[in-house]
Amino acid sequence: MRKFWIDTDTASDDAVAILMALRWPDVHVEGISVVAGNVPVEMGGRNARYTVELCGRQTPVYLGLPRPLLREPSWAYFFHGPDGMGGMNYLEAKRPAENKHGVDALIEAVQAAPGEITLVTLGPLSNIATALRVAPDIAEKIPMCYIMGGAAACLGNVTPAAEFNIWVDPEAARMVFKSGMPILMVGWEHCRGAANLDDADMAHVRGFKTKYADFAIDCNAHAIKTNAAHHREGNPREDAERIPDVAVGGVDQPEDQQQREHQLAADAAREKHDDLPVARAPDRAARRLLPSPMPECGAKV
Ligand SMILES: [Ca+2]
Asked: How far is CA 199 from CA 108, 218, 231, 245, 270, in A?
């Protein structure tokens, strides 16, 4: 079994990514740390715990940093709904969040199994930057960190240059990208096009008639509506919904197609660049990312 650790600001797209990881046949999720991002950390924890319970798992969920390292939080209720889960008002999960900080839990897990735990990040990098600052040795004990974030080869989704996860905490992103940890960035460019579900795709998923399939579409109800309102014209695929966060799918790229670049630099100087923070590829990195299309989903939804 492959061991994963997921760091997430759990709103609806991350919930589906967590569902996929928990249902993936040869993956064991060792733990989930939550960070402030789309929603406050407590709400993200609640959403992650609900998703874990839905999947019938006992995966521990730890709360991490409640805000970016230096900047004020910037929530995304407008997109994911007032609960981050499409306004579905899911019940509180029975199992509470663990009584340990998410950063400590991540460090302990990596140090207990050096070289074994693949890190997947789905939100701002505040937790990961802090973990690397507290325990820099984990950078060489994590075989690969898959980061959903940045916009190296397309327009961003917050500003023309900035993707949300990097924009929220660019200082943390810079620390992570400079840490020496092996990183594969799954940027916003891979969240467009074929990564989106159109109406026919969503009907197909509904056709599975499982609680997982319904959950995957239902919790994204607000995101689907908002996305459609923002993109009334253009490519139908671009109008469709991005479900799930693509970083989990990116992990299963065949090894020989993975383009690894360890020296990406996150440009944290928002002021310097007129509010245009971006995960910036200073050399050839922008052309050395994951190929499209994304792989077929191996998880049973
Ligand atoms: Ca996220």
From this structure: 43, 13, 14, 18, 37
Domains in the chain: how many in total?
1
For residue 258, is it within any domain? yes
Which of 9, 14, 83, 239 is flagged as catalytic? 9
Distance 266 CA to ligand 1 centre (A): 18
Report pTM.
0.81
- In the reported structure, the alpha carbon of residue 114 is separated from the centroid of ligand 1 by a whole-number distance in angstroms of 26
- For residue 221, tell me if it sits in a domain: no
Instruction: Report yes or no on 228 lying in a domain.
Output: no
Q: Is 9 a catalytic residue?
A: yes
Q: What is the CATH number of the domain that holds 45?
A: 3.90.245.10
Ligand 1 centroid from CA 241, angstroms: 14
Is 138 within a domain? yes
Q: Measured in angstroms, how far is the CA atom of residue 296 from the centroid of ligand 1? A: 21
Burial of 252 (0-12, 13-18, 19+ CB in 10 A): middle
> By residue range, what is the domain housing residue 156?
2-192+245-290
Strands 196-197 and 183-186: unpaired
Neighbouring residues of the ion ligand 1, judged by CB less than 5 Å: 9, 14, 122-123
Measured in angstroms, how far is the CA atom of residue 15 from the centroid of ligand 1? 9
Query: How confident is the model at residue 296, as a pLDDT?
Result: 59
The answer to whether residues 58 and 23 touch, using CB atoms and an 8 Å cutoff, is no
Closest CA to 270 of 68, 79, 38: 68
Binned at pLDDT 50, 70 and 90, residue 71 comes out as very high
